[in-house]
Amino acid sequence: MGVTFVILSMDTAVSPFWGDLHRSSPSWRFLARCYSAGLVAGTLAGTPCETFSEARFTEPPEGLCVRWPRPVRSAELLYGLPGLTLRELRQVQLGSNFSLQGLETLSSHLAMGGLFLSEHPGVPLRPERPSTWRAAITELLRNHPDVHLSHIKQFEFGAEAVKPTGLLACRMPRLLRILRSLAMPNATKPSEVAIGVGPDGAFRTAKLKEYPPLLCEGFARAFCEHFRSAIRAGHVRFLPAWETTFGDLKEWVTGAADASAAIRANAAWMPDHQPRHT
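^ thats the sequence. predicted structure below, dont judge the formating
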């Protein structure tokens, strides 16, 4: 269709430097400029669920000899409970910043155009438990007619646990239809829950940090189909001279794209909270 997309995979699991999106990092500063200039066609975000996880409300198994994560948020005190340790405060700050940065990118798309999709655990059944979907700013943005929150269960795409998942989308009205076309028709609801520790002593949530391949395909198809519709409708702004106008951004985009180019299937997951070395 005469359009070239440059895909940036911004994650420290991809590159400790290029993928560092901490607010003080060079990558976030450059990326924020790309958003404010309207250079980003689409965003797929996944706020780390570590400090929002319902698994933290589960009591530790009797006799467990490892540190058990406790709740650090609630629906009322979404940005941190009182009496947290220094390590917990750092974890909460990081998770809160990434959550708010995701909403910043959504706001940029609302103002400048483009598609947006954010994945995060589904809304908890118990109203007192924390969720980014219950944040006041999220509810405000959901009032926009182009923004919709829907839910899926990842076991229908091959995950080993049910994993209810919320999807906050902007300008992607056919998202669920596309995902359902790829869901496994005979998927059996797993009996295993993604809470607690397994026989090997590892937390069961760890292996569910990655999306099942079918869900990855569904996200990609959804973006492609909605991009095609936008291009056909003439809703795409072409900036042939952007490399000249935003000269210093070109060097950063090129470096980030090179770092993102390698696809490492079945690579080991990394913890959400990783100490930064500056």
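The mean pLDDT is 88.
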